[in-house]
Give the backbone structure.
Amino acid sequence: MSTGSSSNTGPTHKLVEAGVTLLIALFGVIVIIGSVKAGINWGAEGPRAGFFPFYIGLFILVSSAINLWNGLREDNDGLFAEWGQLRQVLSVVIPTAIYVSAIPFIGLYVASTIFIAWFMRWLGKYKWPVVLAISFGMPIVTYLIFERWFMVPLPKGPLEEWLGL
Amino acid sequence: MEELVNLFHGFAVALQPYNIMLMVLGIVLGVIIGVLPGLGGANGVAILLPLTFSMSPTSAIIMLSCIYWGALFGGAITSILFNIPGEPWSVATTFDGYPMAQQGKAGEALTAAFTSSFVGALFAVIMITLVAPLVASFALQFGPAEKFAVYFLAFCSFVGLSKEPPFKTIAAMMIGFALAAVGLDSITGQLRLTFGSTHLLNGFDFLIAVIGLFGIGEILLTMEEGLAFRGGKAKINLRVVLQTWKELPKYWMTSLRSCFIGCWMGITPAGATPASFMSYGIAKRVAKNGNNFGKGEVEGVIAPETAAHAAGTAALLPMLSLGVPGSPTAAVLLGGLLIWGLQPGPMLFVEQKEFVWGLIASMYLGNLVGLIVVLTCVPIFAAILRVPFSIIAPLILVLCAIGAYSVHSSTFDVVLMLVFGVIGYLLKKCNYPLAPLVLAIVLGDKAEEAFRQSLLGSQGSFGIFLSNPLVGTIMVLGLIALFWSVIQHGYTRLRGAMA
């Protein structure tokens, strides 16, 4: 698989890293707020529910501050990734997000069949017979192994109901 | 002596035909997991964990631990043949393994790698057999303060020993602790950090985090790099195996040293990856023909493989005897124990003898089975890698979704898995270590409980963590581990100033 575009541009590593660090710091703030809500002092039964997470939140905040400082000071002009590479990554993330959100409605088996078929046809450019064989074969094998052999029920949709499985 | 009897009972359990079948199945699945990019030991075991819900705990752990051994073996195959480490701990194996394969000595390299893996694992299992019961009986006397001290030591070692920047390790670890705190507080029964969401009532399950962070995250990384496999053919025949075996005893010193490094790094939660690098580095410095390292020296395959496998196996020692896993995969196995209704920790050795010794016996047998399976089936496993990534990737993604769903039969968890996947991709790219994050999610509740109970006993005084020699020693060791790189740095400077 090639990386698609060969243009050597993209977000810098510094920028993305600073963004990630700020997100982590934000998470720390949320943890602190939640802990304060739950109570961070001592109650009748000892330290209250927010006591421990409060300090965890503080640690997250402080270490993020140091990481941000270190990251900005660093001499790193490198790219985080090229746009073409990021497009490659998004070409997996977006379909997976659709797949994941479709599971509750059409069931795991149907969603998986469509997802695998799309992936192989779109990104892999395989011929339809191969695509169909694998995209139908995998869910059937999964059904046999999980539901029949190990008795682990997986989410089903209208199709399975209609088939009476 | 009693241990020996117990071990024999363990062998009787492990040798039941059903368990042997699970062992072989586990090894084969494990090697496949190890060979495939995007599926590693930790998330492979996590995905397959739901399959064991209906088994007895002993059979379940035998199968899962064999998946782990299989993954350890499998990592070497791709490193040597394709110069692609299937697992992080086999990166060091590529340095000399791949050049050997290019020189047409793939068979020798593979035989040396598998045999060294086996030797390393065997050494670690013997160590576990001898040491684990002692540690467990010692740990039975631990109160909450000592328990917290052990967790403290484990997490400090991460900060001091990992190659990532210390404050990134701390940040990652603390994110894990915070995620573990979400939901019902086990001591007061109060809800916290849920912000009114009913989905978060039970908190974050670390299995979902493992599948997302390691599984999905890894796939995204692989997509970004754009993989193309080019590699040598795998051919192993009996003659090559025997010939290589005749050569191997020459390197007994390297093996022994790597075993010790591996065991040490496995017990302290540094893990298999740094163990393999460290072992390779030392072997290169000590060996007579150290200059040839990197050009296809068999010793450069033996050292990292032995250490990685010894570390991977030794990681189960603290998991079994203290309830503190030494690696993400050991953490997943620990999560399994909880699901099967067992309480990890020293009491296992008292209350669940059959389970503990069945597992230990299966480690001996599993690694032997593993050695035979990989030696005989290398070409088949290598063929898996020739299946293009655009077929493998969607299959792995679907498997991850199935694994995430079946932990709690919840479709919300599948969404969460994808979120964790994207987070894992970003964190990995920004050089945050993921292992401490996962371990903190697993151990967060227990560490917090021990911490609060200790403070409760001392009425809020932190003096309790230094109140007796035992807890004091463990805490001081923890601090030394925490500041290890600073200490090392200072020592080198001091020596530089003296000279």
Notes: Residues 39 and 50 of chain A are 5 Å apart (CA to CA). Chain A touches chain B through 72 residues (CB under 8 Å).
